[in-house]
Amino acid sequence: MLEKVTFFIFAFIMFMILFFKLIRKKDSIYIYLVALNLVGILIRFVELSNKLEFNFILVSVCYIISVIIPFIIIVLELKKIFIPEMIATAKAKMFLKLGDNEKARKILIKFIEKHPDSCLSHKLLADIYEKEGKLEAAIDEYVLVVDLNKKDYDSYYEIALLLNRTEKSEEAQKMLESLLEKKPEYYKASELLGEILYDQDKFKEAATVYLQALKYNPDRFELYYGLGMAYTRLNDFQTAKEYYEKAAKINSMLFHAKVNIAQILLIAGEIEEAEERFIECLENKESEPDAYFYLAIIAMLKGEVDKAVSYVNIAIELDKRMYKRVCRQGIFAPIMDQVRKDKSRNHKYYLTNQEFKTRRYLDETISLINSMKSDGKKRDAKGDGKIIEINEREF
Fold this sequence. Notes:
It is built from 19 helices and no strands. By secondary structure, the chain is mainly alpha-helical. Among the domains are: 2-81, no CATH class; 270-395, no CATH class.
């Protein structure tokens, strides 16, 4: 008898809590929970009124649907886990996996109409809009998330990222600066802010951002790599090399940094070491075309013409875009008639805008140095003036 009284006390308490939640939140999930709770209470009431003794399994089911499930729901909500929200977003994610974005979007919009304060639903809806290319709509959803939760720093970052993608870099910069004031250790914000400043040719400011971020994230290779690119554009090649080295030490697969290191060694006139570095870069498919391209330059500098022709043609075979880079390097002028142009293969690798600009800048520097060397030799041979000596280690 005591057990039955205990059951009815707890079951009734759960019923009252669920009933008030139903009135307050007006969500269908609470209708089902209240109905289940009542089923359990009615079964035990029939047992009590007819002086029956139900078996253990039936009694356990009553406890589960009338006490345990409601109790779990209440505990989860106390921990800020909203069950209807979990169910709605789970359904939306299921349709997303099935490729039905429209159905997922409708589920979320319907849920948000009932629960406009659902951060999780707004974020998932923003993600859907972003994948569909509706960036302005995605930004609006993330703004709502930030309004609901001022400490959702990931949403701050997403807004800045999308603003930058929609060519609103100044707004993105302000958003990132505000985010870093609140959370200076958020390295992704520093990384993006550095990229934006780099694209604006504000290389000193970009370097300052990366250096500040390193105080909180000393092991992030992305920050060292960003510093390497910033100092490259500041013509401080030695410092750039040091940061590239640190980035590559943390991430041994960062072959783009290794290519840049080898380029700087080539600029500094350290040809043998540069050659060794470029040979190492042949181990990675992403850096292989670049490595062959620069090995060809080194071969030309050494007077190894046949080897240069071979390297150039391999680079173009791996990536037909290399042909234009070969044409831009005056050092290849003597062998252009042996360079194969008609290749259809395109090497698949991705360079960020900053990586592309840095690589192009180093290319132009190497080309300039080789051109100045060539001009100096011609003038010396003709005896028409002093040779301009280039201290390549300080260039």
